[in-house]
Amino acid sequence: MLSRLSIRNYAIIERLEVEFSSKLNVITGETGAGKSIIVGALGLILGQRAEGAVLHDKEKKCIVEGCFKEEAADDHVLAFFKENELDIADELVVRREIAPSGKSRAFINDTPVNLSQLNELSSLLVDLHQQFDTLELGESDFQREVLDALAGNFSTLHQYGQIFSSSQTARRELEALKEQKTQFEKEFDYHQFQFNELEEAGFTTNELEDLDTELRLLSNAEGIKNALSKAYFDLAESEEPVVRQLKTMLSSLQAFAELHPELPALTERLQSSYIELQDIADELDRISNHINSDAERLEAINERLSLGYRLLKKHAVSATNELVEIRNNLHSKLQAVLNIDDAINAAEKKYADSLQQAESLAAKISAARKAQVKPLETQVNKMLAQVGMPNARIKVDVSKAPLNSTGFDAIEFLFDANKKEQFQPLRKVASGGELSRLMLCIKSLVATSMDMPTLIFDEIDTGISGEAAKQVGIIMKELAAARQVICITHQPQIAGKADAHYLVYKDLQNDSIRTGVRLLNTDERIVAIARMMSGERPTAAALENAREMVMN
Question: Which of 382, 395, 472, 469 lies closest to 426, judged by CA?
């Protein structure tokens, strides 16, 4: 429940703090005193949009803070805290700040949060019904939620939502595969032609690069062979070959090696050079013997390269490996065409299975909704008579609709205000006052099912008076037996039912109007209610009536 509301620097409120009871709290006051301003401030900590224009003092920030007791132990709230990694405390404190710049910040237990988190938490804490929220009653989503609340469908709906989402994912996957198959079939012949061309060419990794190297070798074979032969001749076969000269040098030096300390090292180096040059000569001879000009091989390489360069240009690539990769990709695409029918069959089965599960759960949800139709009609019609609408009737129409995220039911609340059996959609025929009383009746029925700890009604009594207002007060009193109710009202009959009665007033301070709120004692309540009935100076009869309302 909302135990305390603190407001600073909001509209005509400089500083205000209200502590609420856990039962029926009634807020009254003259028109324009600031009752709805308090609700507006409360809306800030429930995630509603903030504007810098609401600041009373443009140099200071606005702070609205609400303290909630007992909600910290609620399973849904605990799950929210765990999911959002927030600290859990015995008291839940929600704060909203608006800076002079208009920038807004929100906090839960002093931890900064975003507006979506604040909205999610507020939906677990408070149900705020404002003057124009009766329009919601005509919306199909709200009407469906009423039946689901009474039927206890929420856990089943959560399970259904997951299965339905899976079925839609499976459907999209199936459609994507079918579209892919259509595209494959369009491109199959072209891909097959390209693949056959590359497969027939049969290029291997780095083949064109290797052939280009071989081509340059064969094209220069004669020059290379001549250079190799000359080098070999100079080293080993000329009149005075280098290798023989080195051997002669080595022999002459070795004879004196023992006579000079540095000669052994030099002879060893000459020995190594002699061996190395002899080896080089042998290698030159071997390579020279293997180089020959081959006209047929040269022609074959040129043809192979010509084919390769043509394919490189065609596919806009520059290396053999890229051609090989293109061929492999084309092969994969051709295989995919052959395999896609199997994938489509598997996807169709997956979609059919998930759709069957979704339809089965949707049927269960629908049956539970339909089971609540008659009890809802009976109870609401009974309560409509109680709140001064004895001839009004509500009828719930449930028809089959295409499967969607909430099942396959189309739900419409129909209304007949004058017992003419001419039921029309509620949104088309009910007046504002009728909608207000209807909303109260319906919310009183679903409050327990939806487990809403705090209900706030801002002037839901618009358009009613007398016995109807008294009955509305009785309904609110019954609602407040199990949960906190906060009601802003102009009706003395409702104010008389309060467990805690707060008066909103205006006060002139330093040539500036301020809004204040105070909790009334019994005598003050009697006077306030009498004024609601007969004006600023209540009559003795009004005071007596007010006393009877309060005491009874």
Answer: 395
Written as one string, the DSSP assignment of 369-436 is: HHHHHHHHHHHHHHHHHHTT-TT-EEEEEEEEEEEETTEEEEEEEEEESSSSS--EEHHHH--HHHHH
**Helix 221-232 to helix 263-290 angle, to the nearest 10 degrees?**
150
Cβ neighbours for 312, distance < 8 A, ≥ 6 positions apart: 208, 318, 319, 322, 323
At 371, the pLDDT band (50, 70, 90 cuts) reads very high
- pLDDT (tens digit per residue) in 259-272: 888 888 988 898 89
The C-alpha angle with vertex 488 and arms to 486 and 493, in degrees rounded to 5, equals 100
Asked whether the beta carbons of 471 and 387 are under 8 A apart, the reply is yes
Strands 454-458, 424-425: parallel, antiparallel or unpaired by DSSP? unpaired
Q: Bridge-partner residues for 487, per DSSP?
A: 26, 457
pLDDT of 134: 47
Q: What are phi and psi of 57, to 5 degrees?
A: -105, 115
How far is it, in rounded angstroms, from Cα 337 to Cα 181?
7
**Hey, what's the torsion of the CAs at 402, 405, 408, 410, to 10 degrees?**
-90
The mean per-residue pLDDT over the stretch 450-459 comes to 76
Taking CA atoms, 108 is separated from 10, 114, 443, 460, 498, in Å, by 20, 10, 28, 30, 30
Contact 453, 1 (CB under 8 A): yes
Instruction: Show the domains of the chain with their CATH numbers.
Output: 1-131+459-520 (3.40.50.300), 179-339 (no CATH)
Write out pLDDT tens, residues 145-158: 889 988 989 899 99
Q: CA 23 to CA 549: how far, in whole Å?
A: 17
- Rounded CA gap, 350 and 355, in Å? 8
User: What whole-number distance in Å separates Cα of residue 70 and Cα of residue 56?
Assistant: 33
